[in-house]
Amino acid sequence: MSESGQPTAWTEPFGGDLALRARARDAAGAFAAAALELGAVLAAGERRATETRPLDLTAGDREGLLVALLEEVLVLFETEGLLPAAVEIATLTATRLAGTLRADRFDAARHDPGRAVKAVTWHKLAVREDASGASLRAVLDL
Amino acid sequence: MALHDAMRRLDAVRMELPAGSVPGQRAPCRLYADEALFRQIRRDDTLVQLANVGTLPGLVGAGLAMPDAHQGYGFPIGGVAAFDTESGVVSPGGIGFDINCGVRLLATDCEPPPPSRLKALLDDLFRAVPAGVGRGGALRLDRKAMDGVLAGGAAWAVRNGHGTEADLDRIEAGGRLAHADPDQVSERARKRGRDQLGSLGGGNHFVELQVVSAVYDETAAAAFGLAPGQLVVSLHTGSRGLGHQVCGDHLRILDGAMGTHGIRVPDRQLACAPIRSREGRGYLGAMAAAANYAFANRQILTALAREVVGRALGARLHLIYDVAHNIAQFEEHGGRELLVHRKGATRAFPAGRREVPADYAAVGQPVLIPGSMGTASWVLAGEPGSLDETFGSCCHGAGRRLSRKAALRDSRAEAVVAKLEARGILVAAASHRGICEEKPDAYKDVDAVVEVVRRAGLARKVARLRPLAVIKG
Predict the structure, then answer these.
(1) CATH code for the domain in which residue B253 is found
(2) What pLDDT digit, counting tens, does each position of B260-315 carry?
(3) Most A CBs within 10 Å: which of B43, B52, B68, B73, as the mutation test of the A interface?
């Protein structure tokens, strides 16, 4: 997280691909920050929360939930042109994530296309949470 | 000891990493590289990823990496691994997200036009071929048509007016994997693929106009239909979002099933299941369906290219060959059936293999090796050494040398384009960023890569192709 305690997310090179990383006070904050950062990778520009999509995802563990959430962002963009504007996570257990994704529809007048992200990989996938906060890493296949 | 110090040089182009170099590595691994390429390959995690392949159950012989190898996720890009069909596994990470990404080479019956007409041709192609992020394809599929594509591959495209029956003989596996199971392809994958058939996509995918600049093997070149000075067209694309989703869906299933099969892997991207298991068969059926989608995709792009080139130049395009470089296929090697995974590696079967098209039976299968944007591409032919050593495989391209961020550093798209144009190479791109990320020096020297596979006896040089104009996604 940032010095002010706000969730923070960023990408860094990973060979020809990108590693997406995030930090926050808790895992829900880090997940939400990661989802927004993936949106920033897909397209740049302002976001208006004009559409809402429910999130209800299950997986075998937290890492699997992270992949499922990021894949949700990717698929919403690819199939409906939706970019995340806000991610609210109401429930995050070891195997379930529930909440709401507010999104903006891609508009060439307001948004610049970003990178072509093929998929969220399981390579070096990590979600860590301890007394100091939560951090995560997922490698994106470009 | 660093892993690169554990590498033992066998000869000028072969190196071996003994079993036991990483915990659980049961089989040795082999890298095809000269010293200059090895110095580039050792810089990232390629060798760790190669060693990890050696931990997988049922691996036959050695885990292999080609001279264009670079860091991927799970398997390295440029990796080859063959598994016993009784005791071995299938791993989506050994194929990649872009299932059946591949290259297709089409030859015209004419020489390149003068620069002004070439520019017009490039512009026409750029308008006709959907390219870049978020661009839909030439077709929109309903459920019945999607099932037809997933089961029928390139044959579906031909039946629906995109090409001829003769094309199918010039495609790896005839353009259709028969064990495809469309029922194993999720609704989400179908949704992603519904309007992307007949599109190029982004990243390193391209359409390139090239000229045959040199012929090294006149007999093979004549069999392939290539001659010096001839205009040719290369296509590079795959299964688009549908294939990406199939890989993601089944990675999740296999990751969850490994415990029940008593399998542990050092990297979750290597998630795998026994080939004969329910999960393994499910993935193989879905993977084959996605591969068929990719064969159909390249077939439809071929039809678009034929239309544009025919209109612009009055020329016909005939298909020389279509190779897959992200795929797993059941093949016979050494008298037994194996499942050969190729991730960023190309089949390179020599003369005499039944899979080689009849027209090429005497010279071997065409092996298509694209270079980076602005550098040469190669047409090779499979050699017997590939069957002796690499389960009939060789490299797939130049192989990335710089990260995308490093490629972007100090790069302006306008400058990259101007530099290419000064060399007589025209560029049309959906994205400025893509031009910088794919600039020529972001990749290894394709000539050096090809020289290693030649010296290793995996494939021989047939023709060199010089780029004239390129469309980048």
Answers:
(1) 3.90.1860.10
(2) 999 999 999 999 999 999 999 999 999 999 999 999 999 999 999 999 999 999 99
(3) B73
Domain residues of chain A, as ranges?
28-141
Unique residue bearing structure tokens 């559409």: A51
Enclosing H/E stretch for A133 = strand A133-141
The C-alpha of B298 sits at a distance from chain A's nearest C-alpha, in angstroms, of: 18
Please list, in sequence order, all residues whose beta carbon lies within 8 angstroms of the beta carbon of residue B83, skipping any fewer than 6 positions away. B56, B58, B59, B60, B89, B90, B275, B338, B339, B340, B341
Number of domains in chain B: 1
The answer to whether the beta carbons of residues B379 and B368 sit under 8 Å apart is: yes
The residue type found at B67 is P
Quick one: CATH architecture of A28-141?
A: 3-Layer(bab) Sandwich (3.55)
The bridge status of strand B29-32 relative to strand B59-73 is parallel
ipTM: 0.90
Residue B119 belongs to domain spanning? 3-472
pLDDT digits (tens, 9 = 90+) for B379-401: 999 999 999 999 999 999 987 77
On the question of pLDDT at B133 being above 70, the answer is no
Specify the DSSP class assigned to residue B402. S
Cα–Cα–Cα angle for B249, B252, B258, rounded to 5 degrees: 135
DSSP A56-102: EEE-SSHHHHHHHHHHHHHHHHHHH-EEEEEEEEEEE-SSEEEEEEE
| Cβ atoms B224, B462 nearer than 8 A | yes
Greatest Cα pair distance, chain B, in angstroms, is 63
Q: Does the annotation count B396 as an active-site position? A: yes
Nearest-angstrom CA–CA distance, A120 and B422:
39
Instruction: Output the pLDDT for position A1.
Output: 63
Across the interface, of A16, A17, A79, the residue whose CB is closest to B192 is A79
| Cα torsion angle, B100, B402, B369, A113, sign | positive
- Cα B140 to Cα B183, B192, B196, B205, B287: the distances in Å are 20, 11, 7, 21, 21
**Which pLDDT band, with edges at 50, 70 and 90, does B68 fall under?**
very high
Let me know: does B176 contact B153? Beta carbons within 8 Å: yes
Per the structure block, which two tokens stand in for A50?
């004009």
What is residue B134's predicted lDDT score, i.e. its pLDDT?
A: 62
What phi, psi does B273 have (nearest 5°)?
-145, 155
> Are A15 and B400 inside 8 Å of each other by CB?
yes
E strands within B182-324? Answer: 206-215, 231-237, 273-274, 317-324
Chain B 282-311, residues with CB within 8 Å of chain A CB atoms: none
B144-165 burial: b if 16+ Cβ within 10 Å, else e: eebbbbbbbbbbbbbebebbee
Q: Which of A16, A116, A119 is nearest residue B248 as measured by Cβ atoms?
A: A119
